[in-house]
Design a protein that fits this description.
The complex is a heterodimer of chains A (451) and B (449). By secondary structure, chain A is α+β, with helices and mostly antiparallel strands. Chain A has 14 helices and eleven strands. A six-stranded mixed beta barrel of chain A has the order 3-4-8-5-7-6. In chain A, helix 1 packs across helix 12 and helix 12 packs antiparallel against helix 13. The two termini of chain A are 26 Å apart. Chain B has a six-stranded mixed β-barrel with strand order 2-3-7-4-6-5. Classes of the chains: A alpha+beta (451), B alpha+beta (449). Chains A and B meet through helix 2, strand 3, strand 4, strand 6 and helix 10 of A and helix 2, strand 2, strand 3, strand 5 and strand 6 of B.
């Protein structure tokens, strides 16, 4: 009890401890704000990738794709842990917008919009056909025409507003898009003859806004069968580039399910090894969405790690400050320490007093830093709106970055880690002065010329 | 007495090891700010200069679907201007390249003029196989088949860098030289079968080319997307009914030329060249390379300032640390202060002693910080490689950060203010302890009880 009382008394009676509290509060505030924003951005980015890819992906590394996918889809549909499967034919093509005489390179994704919406978040990315994704490829202005859904930034119509939202017409504009692709045979060569490029006109039917820059700026969705014809995947064996799978229990899927799918795929490959085109199975990988989107997500994760490393230096300064404050307190309290020790207090109790003192500093500093950080984060979007309205300043220019609101949800585990780190840093800072105090000999500290 | 003050100041510096802590904190913060500022500034400069290096200082672009004929005359007129060093024509289009079985990539196709382009951009240095040849010998000639169309392709179009090392497999790239590739592109042509002949029709064209060289500029965007052909061949394919045409003119200015004035000159030359030739001449765009990326660069600068602000806020901790350390020294040196004051040193001199002490700590710490910052920046690529080889984490990838190398130029412009801020922070931190020292009463500190 005396330990607590003394630690508490030292904390309140030494004005210098306020400085240590301020330092801890400042560090906790900065780390909490930066980590919350960065974690929010990363979490949001991962979620968008998950929404885009589904839970598990069976994909070929080659544009040639792989065959016999319908047989494997039947096998997958029989599994109780699989909710839906969607095939996709991918190709690289050129898009030409007739009205604007505009050309650009794109990625073609051939899908069945209903199936794909069951596996991924495709339906929610649409603007006009959100409620009826089955009609995604039926242009509202002429349903009989072949429709095409483009990533929202594919066609440069300047619809992006300064707040990152988009302007839309009541109905999709009538636009004819000419898509050209090199049709590839099963060996990857050009199908039929060198001069033949598959070209087909589609009519813009909807926009897809996934929130992923590389998807929204480069992908055009067309019906699966049309994509297979354009890319030469329709004969002699119908081929696709990937199968997207959704597991039954939504987001909380386990890697064991991916392993089960991988097992099924390996069995399927063995069973079909003698069929023509089976050599294409060698390019196919079964991956979880995290593995599949690794190259996209990894750079952001690395930036978060680098930022964390930089903020570790903040912790070092806190350690130094606590060290100095404790050193000072101890140098002024040598008499108390001498009296305590002369009354039989063990070294551990003396050390305990100063570690408790450090913990008080850490906890009160963390409390102030966390509360002020939370208030700042709670108001950060309003603050940014105000700054933009009055001074034209945004943290991120929404016409450049695909970021909506600044993420401001404090994660309890992040807060716990930050507070825990603050306590740890303060205890490290208190350790050496605390040990020095504990090792003081009462006969020395109570000498009259030392008082 | 002044000498005693200075002597005591240096004596405390030498004998109080805790002072090293405050110096270390000042050094660490200065190094952090200098490294952050230099890396960001280097990156921003690299973005700015990469566009200007590879596209020229000024770009004249015809409106979509329009082409410039007789561009030689225009280029000669441009080169007659004092502020313009050289200019070259480009015919730009989008396309798809089939480089090997199953390997199709979208590409930006440029019809270029050699050797004129080499005078405007550093393409010569970027060529893997012709960089040692004299400029006038660099070309698109395919050995053993002079009639074939040669092409120069960006290294990233042909191969993907290794996931772990971010390096290209150069042997595989070399093996592709001479290989035949197919390129498809397209243009608007008059449709003779259409009854309404005024309606142009979009027509796809396929060009068979042989790879004669590979360009490795170190700029991801260029390396990943460019396919270069002789302008005559591309023009013949896209616009068979016309003489050789271009839709872009890349212009290099003379060293020290005023960009705004040069742009006015370009507009003037264009006007006198195009007025009688093209009815669309007023819709041409004349842009400087800097303007092309102005919005992006403004964003990068903003991010840099936000980061510097955060780190600056962190550095407030230094003031607190210096305050604590100096307060500790004042408290433990009350006897010294009492002796000094009893010898007649004024309170102002005692305060000055501690402020001087703080300033010296700031100067030494800031200089150490500059040294540390310089060491980090100068060896940043080696550090990054060491991290990659030890931990297997490739922090810098061209696909994420545009360039193959981390810009490692020290931004000396910011060193001055960061050093100054470090010194001032240390001096401010020592202010209150200095006042406390000045208020020490010798009669209290020197009494025996």
């Amino acid at each position: 009890m005396i330990k607590w009382l003394l630690a508490w008394r030292y904390f309140f009676k030494r004005p210098i401890s306020i400085l240590a509290v301020v330092a801890v509060a400042l560090c906790v505030f900065i780390v909490l704000v930066v980590m919350t924003v960065m974690n929010g951005l990363l979490r949001d980015f991962k979620q968008k990738n998950h929404d885009y890819a589904g839970d598990c992906i069976i994909a070929s590394d080659s544009l040639v794709g792989f065959g016999y996918y319908e047989d494997f889809m039947d096998i997958l549909r029989e599994q109780p842990y699989i909710e839906a499967v969607s095939p996709m034919a991918k190709g690289v093509g050129l898009i030409h917008l007739k009205q604007y005489k505009w050309d650009n390179g794109i990625e073609i994704h051939g899908i069945d919009p209903l199936l794909h919406s069951q596996v991924t978040n495709f339906a929610n990315t649409l603007h006009y056909q959100k409620q009826t994704p089955g009609n995604a490829f039926s242009p509202q202005y002429a349903p009989q025409l072949d429709g095409c859904v483009t990533g929202i930034d594919v066609i440069p119509l300047g619809r992006r507003n300064s707040d990152g939202t988009y302007s839309f017409h009541d109905k999709p504009m009538q636009m004819e898009l000419v898509i050209s692709v090199f049709p590839l045979n099963m060996k990857g060569g050009l199908l039929r003859s060198l001069d033949l490029v598959s070209t087909k006109s589609f009519f813009y039917s909807d926009d897809s806004h996934s929130g992923l820059v590389r998807v929204d700026g480069a992908v055009a969705y067309i019906p699966l069968e049309q994509a297979q014809i354009l890319c030469g995947m329709d004969s002699p064996i119908k081929r696709i580039s990937s199968l997207h799978i959704k597991f039954t229990d939504g987001t909380s899927f386990s890697y064991s399910k991916v392993a089960k799918v991988k097992f099924l795929w390996d069995e399927f490959v063995v069973q079909n090894a003698d069929k023509p085109g089976s050599e294409l199975f060698a390019n196919v990988r079964v991956q979880s969405w995290q593995e599949n989107r690794r190259s996209i997500i990894a750079p952001m994760e690395k930036e978060q790690i680098m930022m964390t490393m930089l903020f570790l230096m903040l912790g070092v300064i806190t350690v130094f400050i606590v060290f100095v404050v404790l050193y000072m307190t101890i140098s002024h309290k040598s008499k108390d320490i001498g009296i305590l020790k002369s009354m039989g207090a063990p070294m551990s109790s003396i050390l305990g007093i100063f570690l408790l003192f450090a913990i008080f500093i850490a906890l009160i500093g963390s409390l102030i830093g966390s509360v002020s950080g939370w208030i700042f984060l709670y108001k950060v979007n309003d603050l940014e709106d105000w700054l933009y309205a009055h001074h034209g300043w945004q943290l991120w220019d929404r016409t450049v970055y695909a970021i909506g609101d600044i993420p401001n949800q404090v994660e309890p585990e992040v807060l716990a880690i930050i507070v825990g780190s603050a306590v740890f840093a303060c205890m490290i800072g208190a350790l050496i002065p605390g040990l020095q105090a504990a090792r003081k000999k009462p006969v020395q500290s109570l000498q009259v010329n030392q008082l | 007495m002044k000498q005693i003050s200075v002597l005591l100041c240096f004596r405390y510096l030498q004998h109080r090891r805790i002072v090293l802590l405050s110096m270390a904190a000042v050094a660490l913060s200065c190094a952090l700010l200098i490294a952050t500022d230099s890396l960001f500034t280097g990156f921003i400069n690299a973005v700015e200069s990469s566009v200007s290096r590879h596209l020229g200082d000024i770009i004249l672009e015809a409106p979509s679907g329009r082409t410039i004929t007789e561009y030689d005359t225009l280029i000669d007129s441009l080169c007659d201007a004092d502020s313009i060093e050289s200019a070259t024509a480009v015919l730009s289009s989008q396309g798809l390249l089939l480089s090997a079985p199953g390997k199709v990539k979208t590409a930006r196709i440029w019809g270029i003029e050699l050797p004129r382009r080499l005078a405007v951009t550093p393409l010569h240095e970027a060529l893997l196989f012709q960089k040692d040849k004299p400029a006038e010998q660099v070309g698109f000639v395919v050995p053993d088949s002079p009639d074939a169309i040669g092409g120069i392709v960006g290294i990233g179009v042909l191969a993907q860098p290794d996931e772990a090392t971010d390096a290209y497999d150069m042997d595989a790239v070399k093996a592709m030289v001479g290989q035949r590739m197919a390129l498809t592109t397209g243009s608007m042509v008059q449709d003779c079968t259409n009854t309404d002949s005024s309606q142009p029709r979009f027509s796809r064209k396929v060009i068979k080319l042989n790879l004669v060289d590979v360009a490795k500029t170190g700029v991801y965007e260029f390396d990943q997307s460019f396919v270069m052909l002789p302008i005559e061949e591309l023009s013949k394919t896209l616009y068979p009914e016309k003489e050789t045409v271009a839709n872009l003119i890349h212009i290099r200015l003379t060293a020290g030329a005023d960009e705004e004035k040069a742009m006015a000159v370009v507009r003037g030359v264009w006007r006198s060249f195009a007025e009688d030739r093209f009815d669309w001449y007023g819709f041409v765009s004349v842009t400087s390379a800097k303007q092309l990326n102005a919005q992006l660069i403004a964003e990068y600068r903003k991010q840099m300032n936000v980061l510097l602000f955060i780190f600056g806020l962190v550095s407030v901790g230094i003031i607190l640390l210096v305050f604590c350390i100096f307060y500790l020294i004042v408290m433990t040196r009350r006897k010294d202060i009492g002796v000094l004051k009893s010898c007649g040193v004024s309170s102002g001199s005692v305060a000055g002693l501690f402020v001087l002490f703080g300033t010296v700590v700031g100067v030494v710490g800031a200089l150490a910080g500059v040294g540390l910052g310089w060491l980090i920046i100068d060896n940043i690529n080696a550090i990054e490689q060491a991290i990659a080889s030890v931990f297997g984490i490739k922090l810098w990838k061209a696909s994420t950060y545009m360039f193959t190398q981390i810009p490692n130029t020290m931004h000396w412009g910011s060193v001055l203010w960061i050093t100054g801020a470090g010194i001032i922070a240390a001096a401010v931190g020592s202010l209150i302890p200095a006042v406390a020292a000045a208020r020490v009463k010798p009669v209290e500190t020197l009494q025996y009880e």
